Amino acid sequence: MADEPQGSESHREEPVREEMDWPIYGAAVRELAHMVADDGYQPDMILCIARGGLFVAGSLGYALAVKNLYVINVEYYTGVDERLDIPVILPPYVDWVDLGDKRILIVDDVADTGHTLALVRETALAQVGEVRSAVLYQKPQSVVDCEYVWHHTDRWVNFPWSTEPPVVDLQGAGTSVLDA
User: Residue 7: pLDDT above 60?
Assistant: First the structure.
């Protein structure tokens, strides 16, 4: 190519990624629901890890006829392959009152390192009767081996809800929602 400096490569290889679009998501979450149901597990509530787990938990709630969906917010990832040293649970916090004998299904989109799931699992195990986990994707390095996994991968996953950039400009904001 005439426009490229001498010695440069004409193309750069992008890392291979898992690509999930909405039709694949629909089939995947339905298969995940069948895994849970076929195993005979009937959760009393679904605890979703925000944000990626919100979509999966809502879909599983409908498929498994579970109306009790709780949300737990955990901050860990700050970007692609960028994370805090340890995951941190953010407010609002789950009210664990009267859940001592309940069966909980913890749901997220992906178990990457598994540290977020491990924190949520440890927190829930201290409060409820039984805990199991369901994810669309689990990576080999995950410290948590989820009971229900749609697909195992070692690739970064592009989900239909997080592939596109935000429609708002957050660069000049200077403060986060938590700072307000």
Answer: no
